[in-house]
Automatic annotation (TrEMBL):
Molecular function GO labels: 8-oxo-7,8-dihydroguanine DNA N-glycosylase activity; class I DNA-(apurinic or apyrimidinic site) endonuclease activity; damaged DNA binding; double-stranded DNA binding; zinc ion binding
Active site: 2-3, 60, 264
EC number: 3.2.2.23, 4.2.99.18
Cofactor: Zn(2+)
Catalytic reaction(s) noted: Hydrolysis of DNA containing ring-opened 7-methylguanine residues, releasing 2,6-diamino-4-hydroxy-5-(N-methyl)formamidopyrimidine; 2'-deoxyribonucleotide-(2'-deoxyribose 5'-phosphate)-2'-deoxyribonucleotide-DNA = a 3'-end 2'-deoxyribonucleotide-(2,3-dehydro-2,3-deoxyribose 5'-phosphate)-DNA + a 5'-end 5'-phospho-2'-deoxyribonucleoside-DNA + H(+)
Cofactor annotation remark: Binds 1 zinc ion per subunit.
Residues annotated as domain Formamidopyrimidine-DNA glycosylase catalytic: 2-115
GO BP, sorted A to Z: base-excision repair
Protein family per UniProt: Belongs to the FPG family.
Annotated protein name in UniProt: Formamidopyrimidine-DNA glycosylase
Subunit structure: Monomer.
Length: 299
C-alpha cells in the first residue's frame, strides 16, 4: 500500500498534470470505487464542467480540488492515476475516466479494486468520513515533539501498531514504521508508555527525517507503486530495515531479523533495537528451537 511519501509523490505529479484542466465527461466502469455519491450518474453529473485547481494530500488520501467540489481519493493497495490522450487504448482495470476538454483524460486504474472516491462540497470533507478522524500530519507545522508525545500519551499499546493507527498519526505504513523505529533504536514491541522522553524525541525526528528522505527520492517502489507518470520511486534502495531480512544492519552489522508484530511482518536489528523483557527470551527460545530443528534434520 502506498504510504505518505508515495502518495505525496503522486500528488505532486498529478498536480502538474491536471491543474487547470476542465472535465467534459466522466465514465465509471466500476461503481464500487465510488463511495459518495455511490451512483455513477450522480457522481458524473457533479463533476462535469468543473476544473481541477490543485491536488493536495491528507495522510494517505489525495484531495483533488475543483471549482466548487472536492474529490477525496484513496489508492489503497494498487490504485493508480495516469494522464493519457483520448485516442490511446484503455488498459484493463481502468475503472474511472475523467475526460478533459483539451483531448486528454485522467484514468484511474486499480487491479485490486480497493480504492475509494468521495465527493464533497469544499470544506465539508473535514467533518465526515474518511477524513474526519485522522491523526497528526507528520510533515506539517502541527507535528511538534509535544504534540507527538501527547498523541502517544500513556498508552500501553505496542509502539508499532500505534504508529500504524491513522487516528494517532497519518501516513505511516509498514515500510516507514519499520524504518523510523530502526533509525531511533526502538523495538516495535515496546509499549508507548515505556518510551523515555529522549526516545520519543528520537522517534519524532526519525519519522520526519525518514519521510522527508523518502519524499525526496520519489517514494519506495516495492510491489507495484509508480507515480502519476508511471515512474518508479528510488527510496527502496535506501531502506535500512524493511525487506532486508538476513542482511547486515548498516549500524552494527548484525543480520536484520523478521518477526510478526500486530499481525504485520516486522524487520528489526536485534542489537540496535533492544526487545522489551520477555520478548527477548521468546526470540532466544525461537532461535534455540531453530538450531535444534537443524540438528534434528541432520540426524
Ligand atoms: Zn544494528
Amino acid at each position: 500500500m502506498p504510504e505518505l511519501p508515495e502518495v505525496e509523490t503522486v500528488r505532486r505529479t498529478l498536480n502538474a498534470l491536471i491543474a487547470g484542466k476542465t472535465i467534459s465527461e466522466v465514465t465509471v466502469n466500476l461503481p464500487r470505487i465510488l463511495q459518495k455519491p455511490d451512483d455513477p450518474a450522480a457522481f458524473s453529473a457533479i463533476l462535469e464542467g468543473r476544473t481541477f485547481t490543485t491536488v493536495e494530500r491528507r495522510g494517505k488520501f489525495l484531495r483533488l480540488l475543483l471549482d466548487g467540489v472536492t474529490l477525496v481519493s484513496h489508492l489503497r493497495m494498487e490504485g493508480r492515476y495516469g494522464l493519457y490522450r483520448s485516442e490511446e487504448p484503455v488498459e484493463p482495470h481502468t475503472h474511472v475516466i475523467f475526460r478533459f476538454t483539451d483531448g486528454t483524460e485522467l484514468r484511474y486504474k486499480d487491479v485490486r479494486q480497493f480504492g475509494t472516491m468521495h465527493l464533497f462540497a469544499p470544506g465539508e470533507e473535514w467533518s465526515a468520513p474518511p477524513l474526519n478522524k485522522l491523526g497528526l500530519e507528520p510533515l506539517s507545522a502541527e507535528f511538534t515533539p509535544e504534540a507527538f508525545a501527547k498523541a502517544l500519551g500513556k498508552r500501553t499499546t505496542k509502539i508499532k501498531p500505534l504508529l500504524l493507527n491513522q487516528e494517532v498519526i497519518v501516513g505511516l505504513g509498514n515500510i516507514y514504521v519499520d524504518e523510523a523505529l530502526h533509525a531511533s533504536g526502538i523495538h516495535p514491541e515496546r509499549t508507548a508508555d515505556s518510551l523515555t522522553k529522549r526516545e520519543k524525541e528520537k522517534l519524532y525526528h526519525a519519522i520526519i527525517d525518514t519521510l522527508n528522505a523518502a519524499v525526496e527520492a520519489g517514494g519506495s517502489s516495492v510491489k507495484s507503486y509508480v507515480n502519476g507518470q508511471g515512474e518508479m520511486g528510488m527510496f527502496q534502495h535506501r531502506l535500512r530495515a524493511y525487506g532486508r531480512t538476513g542482511e547486515p544492519c548498516d549500524t552494527c552489522g548484525r543480520p536484520i531479523e523478521k518477526s510478526v508484530v500486530g499481525g504485520r511482518g516486522t524487520h528489526v536489528c536485534p542489537a540496535c533495537q533492544r526487545a522489551p523483557r520477555g520478548t527477548r527470551q521468546t526470540l532466544k527460545a525461537a532461535r534455540g528451537n531453530a538450531v535444534k530443528h537443524r540438528l534434528d534434520g541432520k540426524q
